[in-house]
Specification:
Elements: E1 7-8, H1 15-24, H2 28-44, E2 49-54, E3 59-64, E4 72-78, E5 83-87, E6 108-111, H3 116-119, H4 122-134, E7 146-151
Parallel strand pairs: 2-7
Antiparallel strand pairs: 1-7, 2-3, 3-4, 4-5, 5-6
């Protein structure tokens, strides 16, 4: 297996500790911001399934209606310098306030310059709600859980 390929990791006994370890690789201020954003998204999407990727460029937590990455509604994407909220099908979302960035054929994002406070902005909250409504598969009814999907052998520095 090449260093570029990511191994799929089975659900460990303590996935929470594993995710905490991924976040701990960041500078303390950035780690705090990631934890706060994650907690706020979990409040807003309590039944979403978290898919976690500790990739080469970014640490990503996707909020999905199933364990399939293509059923992702939105994601936290963090590197050493910033945290963003990515909308997997953002190009299909109405953006009346012009807050979405990016020009790709599918993905759009919002920079979370103020961390979790940005998620509480009514315009951002409306985008999250629109993404949920736009999802092909509805969110589960029961409480969500976390799955670590991949860990890249090589990673850019997190600090």
């Amino acid at each position: 297996m090449s260093a570029q390929k990511k191994a799929v990791i089975a659900k460990p006994k303590d996935v929470g500790a594993q995710v905490d370890g991924f976040i701990a690789k960041f500078d303390p201020a950035m780690a705090k911001k990631i934890r706060e954003v994650r907690a706020e998204l979990r409040k807003q999407l309590p039944t979403a399934i978290e898919l976690v990727y500790d990739n080469y460029n970014f640490f990503v937590i996707g909020y999905c209606s199933t364990e399939k990455p293509s059923d992702c509604i939105c994601s936290i994407a963090a590197n050493s310098k910033s945290v963003g909220l990515s909308f997997y099908y953002g190009a299909d979302l109405p953006d009346p306030y012009g807050i979405l960035e990016g020009s790709g054929s599918q993905n759009r994002f919002v920079r979370l310059t103020e961390g979790a406070k940005t998620l509480k902005n009514p315009q951002v909250a409306a985008m999250i709600e629109a993404a949920v409504e736009n999802s092909e598969k509805p969110l589960p009814k029961e409480r969500g859980y976390t799955v670590v999907r991949s860990i890249s052998a090589k990673q850019r520095p997190r600090r």
